[in-house]
Amino acid sequence: MTEIPAPPVAKQVPTERTVHGDTVVDEYAWLKDRDDPDTVAYLEAENTFTQAATAHTKALQDEIFDEIKSRTLETDLSVPTRHHGWWYYTRTLEGSQYPIHCRSRTEPALPADPAEPIVSPADEVVLLDQNELAGDSPYFALGTFDVSPDGRLLAFSTDFDGGEKYTLRFKDLETGATLPDEVPGTYYGSAWAADGSALFYTTVDDAMRPFRVWRHLLGTAAADDVIVHEETDERFFAGVGLTRSEQYVVIELGSQITSETWVLPATDPQGEFRVVQPREQGVEYSLDHTGDSFYIVHNKDAADFELVVAPADAPGRENWRPVLPHTPGVRVTGVDAFAGHLVVSMRRDGRTELHVLTLADGAVAGPGRDIEFAEPVRTVRPGSNPEFDTTVFRLGYASLTTPSSVYDYDVAGGELTLRKRQPVLGGVDLSVYESVREWATAPDGTRVPISLVKRRDTPRDGTAPCVLYGYGSYEASMDPWFSIARLSLLDRGYVFAIAHVRGGGELGRRWYEDGKLLHKTNTFTDFVACGEHLVAAGWTSHDRLAGRGGSAGGLLIGAVANLAPSTFATLVGEVPFVDALNTILDPTMPLTVVEWEEWGNPVESAEVYAYMKSYSPYENVEARPYPAILATAGLNDPRVGYHEPAKWVARLRATATGDRPLLLKTEMGAGHGGPSGRYDAWRDEAFTLAFIIDTTSGTNLA
């Protein structure tokens, strides 16, 4: 066996931080400067070391990659979506990293059997081939993909380094020509004027906060574009879109707990936007449009939100009339409005639900009904529904044992029609897997749900290895999802579990509020409680248990490393937010001012400072044994700076005792989402799974 070289040792340059009378020395603050040649040299040295330290798993990585590839239908077709007389869909081709966007007047036929060839309609038009756009670039991402209401024009934007600043371009879909208009430095979101004469888009400030909404008139220079809204409150993000009815351009302004919406008739692109309801601290609302009304979901005196209706020409709160009044414990998350019905998204008993209301003459007619599903542990959400005047609602469905599925729901008759289920090739028998719901008890007595999946023949005697996944921030729920890559774990005897910890939104708004600000540590202790429950219940053992999370979920992983290092054998933090206090103290960083309503403001509050310091992973590394740790980073990541995992690993390596591996893997040409191409992403996942297997299987592969 080739001897593994000594790990890199980052230089120490003591830098003092004094806040609220507390002085802290940070030896690795220099890593924040990516222009320092020592920074890139250190990241590359860590990559070299990680490659050497995991070389013995290369055969396993290749095996897992081949499993993912062999189980995935590489040449595939999405379920076509109808809009204004066209069928829109994407195709993927074997060997190609990215999808091809197409449309046709003839509905493409979905093969009944994955083995059958896909036959494109004779009148197919390729709107955009992402593979051609990507060329030889190691990274590529498509931002905006927006067809004008009249179907003549396509607005699309591209990013070649993962920095999430996109160049916006336009294509004439009748001639196939790319127009000379070009707008650099744009962000997500766009909205067309009704006649295709103008497009609204957003740009970001120096802290990567989308703060300006612009209007571009087709055929004019980007320098002549006009700012239609500039958000001066640094807590608020700005977004722009078009209602499904295509009647209104909507500007949505939101902080973590407050929102405000402005609207403009899409037929009057050079008109003035008007506010629906002026912002009020702590009040959030969102809307959709149909007929002469806006249907609005809000939380004014309604902690779990309710649905109201207001006239479009006078939509202020004084005119809101209840449609679905507030029900504590039933979290209303959104509404989709159509010509003849509404579909309300909600959460009940920890599950996602869809509730249908019929409209007559623009008003709700009678009680609604839920769309029913048999599996108790599953995820259902709205699918692609661009057509406004329709009686069919498309939805997405998945569970831990059911692959991603597309259904069409007949609003009048109530029937569900399965249009497509993600194929799983290679002779996989999905009936050998089962899903289970468990409940752990947190230190304060709160019951925390856990979703598990395993093979039916996996023993429950403590011998099975297990991966526990968690997130727990921003009210984002980690609802059960299916993964082909995960099968490579399950077939090796693993249990996969999701800890639905506080800070997420699984059990309503209170579940979120109990895991943020000065309650944030509940997120971490919930996760530890879930891990301990899995051990106590015989699902696994401490020496075979891995924890995994990304971004804010990486903060969870880092906090758990300090809080309960003996609970887990392995921890994987993907682009982890592990230097949380230093970042939230710096108003120039992307995750700062807009985040104070999530974490608190340690600049102004000594209490928040002390509380964040008590859990921020980087602040609390100690001289003790740690689990095996893999941290990943993206050099161009605009959300969680590469320096956070880099500093964390540097301090761990200099401080920790024990002999478990501490590895850092940085994508030198990508951002927050990691590799962009699907094959590259599969190899990246194979690497991570091989690391987990190597460090939790009970037998080191070296």
What does this structure look like?
This protein is of the alpha+beta class and 702 residues long. It folds into four domains: 78-126, no CATH class; 137-283, Methylamine Dehydrogenase, Chain H (7 Propeller); 325-423, no CATH class; 432-697, 3-Layer(aba) Sandwich (Rossmann fold), CATH 3.40.50.1820. 18% of the residues lie in helices and 33% in strands. It has twelve helices and 40 strands. The strands form nine sheets. The chain has an eight-stranded mixed beta sheet, with helices on both faces. Strands 3, 4, 5, 6 and 7 form a five-stranded antiparallel beta sheet that branches. Strands 24, 25, 26, 27 and 28 form a five-stranded antiparallel beta sheet that branches. A hairpin with a 5-residue loop joins β16 and β17 (248-254). The mean pLDDT is 96.
Strand order of the largest sheet: 33-34-36-35-37-38-39-40
Estimate the helix proportion, in percent: 10-25%
The quaternary state of the protein chains shown equals single chain
Domain count: the total is 4
What is the CA-based Rg, rounded?
Answer: 25 Å
Quick one: overall form? globular
Pairing-aware structural class of the strands and helices? alpha+beta
Tell me how many strands there are.
40
